[in-house]
Amino acid sequence: MADQAWWRSAAIYQVYLRSFADGNGDGVGDLAGLRSRLPYLAGLGIDAIWIVPWYPSPLADGGYDVADFRAIDPIFGTLAEAEKLIEEAHAAGIRVICDIVPNHCSDQHAWFQRALASAPGSPERDLFWFRKGRGAEGELPPTDLQSIFGGPAWTRVADGEWYLHLFASEQPDFNWDHPAVRDEFEDILRFWFDRGIDGIRIDSAAVLIKDPLVSDVYEDNEGIHEVYQAWRRIADTYTPPRALIGEVWLPDHEAFARYLRPDELHTAFNFAFLGAPWEAAELRKEIDMTIAVHAPVAAPATWVLSNHDVTREVTRFGREVTNFAFADKRRDVPSDLELGTRRARAAALLTMSLPGAYYLYQGEELGLEEVEDLDDALREDPMFHRSGGVNPGRDGCRVPLPWSGTSAPFGFSPSDATGDPWLPQPAHWSELSVAAQQGVPGSFLQLYCDALRLRRQEPSLGDGPMRWLDSESQVLAFARGDLANVTNLGTAPAALPAHREVLLSSVPLNEDGTLPADASVWLRLA
Ligand code: GLC
What we know:
Blueprint: E1 11-15, H1 31-36, H2 38-44, E2 48-51, H3 79-91, E3 95-100, H4 110-117, E4 130-131, E5 154-156, E6 162-164, H5 179-194, E7 199-202, H6 224-236, E8 243-246, H7 253-258, E9 267-268, H8 271-275, H9 280-294, E10 302-304, H10 313-316, H11 337-352, E11 357-361, H12 382-386, H13 434-437, H14 444-457, E12 467-468, E13 475-480, E14 483-488, E15 499-505, E16 519-525
Parallel strand pairs: 1-2, 1-11, 2-3, 3-7, 7-8, 8-9, 10-11
Antiparallel strand pairs: 4-6, 5-6, 12-13, 13-14, 14-16, 15-16
Helix pairs in contact: 5-6, 11-14
The structure holds alpha-D-glucopyranose.
């Protein structure tokens, strides 16, 4: 735990708390479940966990609608348990990152409730974006701005005013021009840092500042950097300094890099890489771009294959079109899961050997697929509901993990559980459970364990330089010190560079020593 710049190389495991492990048997994951599985996470060889919002929430957006930023939802446990978790994780060598959601709160948050109870023009309303509507009676929203989840970004309240919500209507946007909002969040940061939290993941980090009456643009507006410079000053007052990790979805690479200047965020998620298709030229382009963009600000790159918002890669990579884009998400797109699994194994070795930090999403290490046949009545995601069901939403990547056993809940809940898992698990996940895969040569989980262990052991992996090696156009080959990663995205077998040792491969090599299609290998170079 001594390395203060741990975030530059870390492997960070994302815990979707509701679906990780259920300790009290109500069918919903919780802190007790997470604490009981810390040995599993330590054994996996990860450096930190990022826990998605654990705050009191009506769950209109899976907890990203926060009613109180300084407490734990009773469904997950108590603040005292969160403190214990932090302590136990630290004892196991795991750092803890929590999720801070500064753009909006829940419509049940005390500030918003007070704003609703106060008159138009009151100071209480000034903490949000309340405005009069257009039209003779103000019956039209103040602007035509659309919510990121679909439908209008304005909702009307009883007295006729409208409030802004970039996401669901249960998520009113804070007015970041108001000093009280800034003070409040700085205080929230200290609240969690004082409890030993090692870093924060900042939700929707680029959209805080806006003037929705003047412009439709809510991304990356003037003034956003001052917010994070102030947060950085706070993070730096702690020993060790706390890490700031931004969820920054910005297509403009230079704009993205500005968030990573030395006095701002430490790192940000690499969504360009996540969205890239399973194609050598495209991946190579994203890798080069990522490295070029980070170099001037001396920030480490991050590499991400999936998270709780996107289609699991086993499903994505088994489709004809293998990239990811929210706007293109549709139901019933066929996927060859066997092919997807093979590619996901290769993608893991590629991703884990790239320079910088690596984020994995729970269940990724088990090779879980997106659950696409959920009953509509069970789907909770506002992306599904607000699109009228055109977009399948994100529930399919949030299904509770299978831990053991031959039938649901596969050890997710204790045997005397009173509730079913909050989303049903596919029957064949018995074969993908932790118990079914642990220690089994060739299993998905074993590949992850081996790769994470090597990634830690080998000094040239993690942060540091990389150098492309000559290869066929359908092959990605690069060196990290005396190691190399070769990934074959073509259909023909690929020749490998001269090497002393094969450290790990996603599938066995061919008898003639070539690398099969849709496979990846780590080599020690000759
Ligand atoms: C982020 C979260 C997502 C959430 C949204 C609104 O993108 O990752 O799950 O719905 O912000 O808070």
